[in-house]
Amino acid sequence: MLEDVVRFTFNVDGEDFSSAGAASVQVKKHLRQMGFSPEIIRRVAIAMYEGEINMVIHADGGVATVEVTDDSIVMILEDKGPGIPDVALAMQEGFSTAKENIRSLGFGAGMGLPNMKKYSDSMKIETEVGKGTTIIMTVNV
Amino acid sequence: MIEYKHSVSLDVSKCKGCTHCLQRCPTEAIRVRDGRAAINSQKCIDCGECIRVCPYNAKKATHDPLDCLNDYKYKIALPAPALYGQFDNLDDIDFVIQGLLDMGFDDVFEVAKAAEMVSGYTRQYLRTEGLKKPVISSACPVVVRLIRMRFPFLCENIMPILPPVEVAGKLAREKALREHPELCPSDIGCIFISPCPAKVSYVKNSFSGEKSNIDSVVSVSDVYFKLIDAMKKVDAPAAFTEAGNVGVSWAISGGECTAVFNDKYLAADGIENVIRVLDQIENSDFPELEFVELNACNGGCVGGVMTVANPYIARARIQSLRRYLPVSPNLHPLSEDVPADMMLPGFEYIPTAPLHEDRKEARRMMAEIQEIRKDLPDLDCGSCGAPSCAAFAEDIIRGEICADECVVFMRRVFHDYLSAHPYEQALNDNKDKEVQNGK
Ligand SMILES: Nc1ncnc2c1ncn2[C@@H]1O[C@H](COP(=O)(O)OP(=O)(O)O)[C@@H](O)[C@H]1O
Ligand code: SF4
Ligand code: SF4
Ligand SMILES: [Mg+2]
Q1: For B8-20, what is each residue's pLDDT tens digit?
Q2: Ligand 2 mean position to B202 CA, how many Å?
Q3: pTM for this prediction
Q4: CATH 3.30.70.20 fits B8-61, yes or no
Q5: Looking at domain B361-436, which CATH architecture does it have?
Q6: What is the CATH number of domain A6-140?
Q7: Could you identify which of A76, A136, B252, B345 might form a hypothetical disulfide with A65, taking C-beta atoms 3.0 to 4.6 angstroms apart as the criterion?
Q8: Nearest 5°: phi and psi at A65?
């Protein structure tokens, strides 16, 4: 008997900057196959994309899991990066610690976390400096 | 739903089932079943990638034969700007125009000329208040279909202005009727000389909502040989090109962009790049852009599959041909607003069918797909006839194929069976020995 949840797991490679964002594209495709509305898919895709990019540029990659049930889509982004010392500060629009070389690529505008919050119905951040960060975002269907 | 008329098709008798085309298809529309390729018409965007890659020329671009000229009393050539990039040592487009007349056309209406008008209207359109930016060019039909199928939130961004070829057809027809009152509309044939099959589907599916102004579409490559003979005989062309730098530049990637006269634009070419750019724009993490030009083919339309020359060489030729052309002689007269008959009705999202209409059922099927994938090797080798193990898993769940088409899976089943049946195992070993002993 299959569970009432479909789970997708992605290894987000911290070394491979060029493929950052690939998991988001996959999730988009899967959600479409499952018949979700374009609005829901867009919100998930953006939240997921921002989270994925953060894992690559701030935390050397990690694991992204997406769980789809009847009434929600849950994204769990786990990394073993440096952690976020001041979450309230990190959540502010425009705040970024991204290095110059990252900014020159157009990332590091400091809108990632605010967008993740905006596009999900709930977002929980568990983080410990030196240990890593886990972000759980839920989009209700 | 109206069936989409495609312009890329398969010649089954030539297909060897080699699977080369499977992974090149950007929408995973191809499967090899019973040793032959098959294209899913719901997914195909007519990009022509499979035509490029097939070693046996089994994939073909549908277009009209050159004989179609005989169907019309008054034949007008509508050469795509990409045509000008096909010739070695050409330093003046006038030779092309004269050559077209000499090979049997009664008139030539350059698509480049119409392109300049479209550029002018694009600038006007970009000034419209409340417009969803960036505006995305509608010139490449592959891109338009791709957006409509995959990027619901970008459908609104597609520029709703007639593409140059349609404008050219419309104006050419009007001009013919004006100059030759004795003609009736059915005498006139507007014959587009096209770099790609996609433009053919554009015409056949009348994107403009009404009947297309193009009567026939022939390929650049078919015209090329006849035209080059005619051009060789031209000493001093009597005809003149009316195209400017802006219009001719539409043949190459970035050409349409520069015509919008500001620097907030992006041009991407090659279908994979196009998809990546669209994904990023849809995720809205893009700098402020006014205009986006996307060409499915590498290098732009000079890279179309119905051209002759290498796209990069053609590009260089276009660059030198345009050098001494006036910037844009065809801009006037432009009306204040984009005229209604130059506008397209807008583009609707065409959702692809989910695994199942019922979302619960679709999710259950997705879970099964994930289960099956665990048993597949993720090699994406193509020998099962699907472009990837993931697509194969989906095909299995959709009931289109059986898991034992996967050789890796079958080998494992076989080994499991043997280890569970020591007697057969022994028999098998014996057989091996017999073979070795030459029995
Ligand atoms: N996974 C993470 N690990 C460590 N730090 C993070 C992580 N995600 C975000 N941050 C911190 O939060 C800041 C703000 O993130 P965000 O809003 O996405 O902006 P940006 O990524 O553009 O810097 C980042 O600059 C970084 O310091
Ligand atoms: S590339 Fe595709 S169409 Fe061409 S022979 Fe191989 S399987 Fe058939
Ligand atoms: S880029 Fe040009 S030649 Fe290539 S498919 Fe698009 S319209 Fe056709
Ligand atoms: Mg970020």
Answers
A1: 888 889 999 999 9
A2: 25
A3: 0.84
A4: yes
A5: Orthogonal Bundle (1.10)
A6: 3.30.565.10
A7: A76
A8: -120, 135
